[in-house]
Amino acid sequence: MSLPSDFLWGFATAAYQIEGSTDVDGRGPSIWDTFCAIPGKIADGSSGVVACDSYKRTKEDIALLKELGAKCYRFSISWSRVIPLGGRNDPINQAGIDHYRQFVDDLLEAGITPFITLFHWDLPDALDKRYGGLLNKEEFTADFENYARLMFKSIPKCKHWITFNEPWCSAINGYNLGIFAPGHTSDRNKSPVGDSAREPWIVGHNILIAHGKAVKVYREEFKPTQGGEIGITLNGDATYPWDPEDPADIEACDRKIEFAISWFADPIYFGDYPASMRKQLGERLPTFTEEEVALVKGSNDFYGMNHYTANYIKHRKGTPPEDDFLGNLETLFYDKNGNCIGPETQSFWLRPNAQGFRNLLNWLSKRYNYPKIYVTENGTSLKGESDLPLEQALEDDFRCKYFHDYVHAMAKAVEEDGVNVKGYMAWSLLDNFEWADGYVTRFGVTYVDYKDNCKRYPKKSARQMKPLFDSLIKKAEVEAAEAAKPAP
Ligand code: PNW
Q1: pTM as predicted
Q2: Has residue 480 been placed in a domain?
Q3: Mutate to test the pocket of ligand 1, among 166, 399, 431, 432 (most ligand atoms within 8 A of CB)
Q4: What UniProt keywords apply to this chain's record, in alphabetical order (predicted)?
Q5: With a 6 A CB cut-off, is 385 part of the ligand 1 pocket?
């Protein structure tokens, strides 16, 4: 088992989850600042106001990355730091731009390759209030294009750009379930009220167009001189049939992935939405104009894959409710024969199943003709980790096993199945603000002591990463040297 010698590995974070300093250096509010202020939305009533204090500790974070041996680091830019009101006619904030440019310089100086995510959910709040944010195609896509251009121009040394992180989460969690900002949902007992049956599909469409516009700008105006690459990051779980003998469950397994991943990946690789989605959603799913197809089709230089878990899938009969977004099926932790998908974690939706990772890498590679893949997130929470005293929390054997098993499953997919994975970023470098879970759920390989000035303590899993990748990459180098030797 081995990985190519140019394989990049490292860690990932996102601006709102780690930076804090929400009113420092001219930053404008994002929809997450507003959302966190709505009572009941965040489990512990917290917000990203302090988070890991990373805005002020960039040197310390880089030193940590270096100490852990990371070759790359994925982070996101807070749009409202660089354009506080967000729009194309709004003033830019040089202090915000300088911060990220300096950060990239410092990473490169430390020998760490930066991956920048332009949008990890923290839309400038002014754009939501001004015109409905992600729901407004003309305005949102033009403003995102403008913001993306400003970043490409300002940070020419970055060679790996991700337009959007997990548009599925923005659309479904933000506009159907209402558990993420801006919190729209059809549930009349909750506010803000939206339209769960329609808004997510409009938001998804608008994100695809905005992605396409940013990619066009990068390819036409920057790539020729900067020579970098650009893509989108999508999330999706692996699937197994609830009843392995039932063709309807087997079919539902593909449909589940289509509703999660192909919703975005099919337009990007093929130019249109999957047939299964059109069939169920009809006119509620927008259609692409010819001009939009030209923008979106072929717009990935690489596929960014976020992956955490797997589910058993049971098909449902009859007409699904209008607000269904799964594809008329149920997701379960046990199959028909009582097999369990994996052990519990602190996250209700996450149960480790490393074989599923290999299966999904294969599924994606076959459907999209073996694209270059960067795993831009993979990781786990631990049940009850927040209740442990510091010394015990540092012994995160459960997380060590998770990373060991998942990374080995990936290496098998590369070596034995011909899947083209070129990088891997563990989620996350630090325990951080886990969105609606607040600080209760920890995903870090580094413990952050929120009660003691955000002090950082690398856990066992943090130190395991370098030997884990060294063993897989070095072996490849040894094998290559062996192969190069003349036959005796
Ligand atoms: C991803 N789900 O989010 C995000 O990109 C990260 O910011 C986040 O911290 C990480 O995974 C861990 O949660 C997800 O409900 C949030 O299936 C929820 C789900 C999936 C991914």
Answers
A1: 0.97
A2: no
A3: 166
A4: Glycosidase, Hydrolase
A5: no
What pLDDT, on the 0 to 100 scale, is given for residue 477? 75
| Cα 223 to ligand 1 centroid, rounded to whole Å | 30
Q: Is there an atom of ligand 1 within 6 Å of 14 CB?
A: yes
Confidence of residue 476 (pLDDT cuts 50, 70, 90): confident
In the reported structure, the alpha carbon of residue 384 is separated from the centroid of ligand 1 by a whole-number distance in angstroms of 18
Is 235 touching ligand 1 by the criterion CB < 6 Å? yes
Q: Please say whether the beta carbons of 459 and 429 come within 8 A.
A: no
Report how far residue 222's alpha carbon sits from residue 229's, in angstroms, rounded to the nearest whole number: 10
431 ligand 1 Cβ < 6 A: no
In a domain, 43, yes or no: yes
Domain total of the chain? 1
Cis peptide before 170 (omega within 30 of 0): no
Domain membership of residue 456 (yes or no) is: yes
Instruction: Tell me: pLDDT of 460 over 70.
Output: yes
pLDDT in tens, 84-111: 999 999 999 999 999 999 999 999 999 9
Ligand 1 atom 13 nearest Cα: 434
381: domain CATH number is: 3.20.20.80
Q: What is the CA radius of gyration of the chain?
A: 22
What's the 76 CA to ligand 1 centre distance in angstroms?
14
User: Which of ligand 1's atoms lies nearest the C-alpha of 443?
Assistant: 12
Q: Which residue puts its alpha carbon closest to atom 2 of ligand 1?
A: 349
Domain that includes residue 438, residue range: 8-471
pLDDT value of position 481: 80
Kindly state whether residue 407 falls inside one of the protein's structural domains.
yes
Nearest CA owner, ligand 1 atom 18? 169
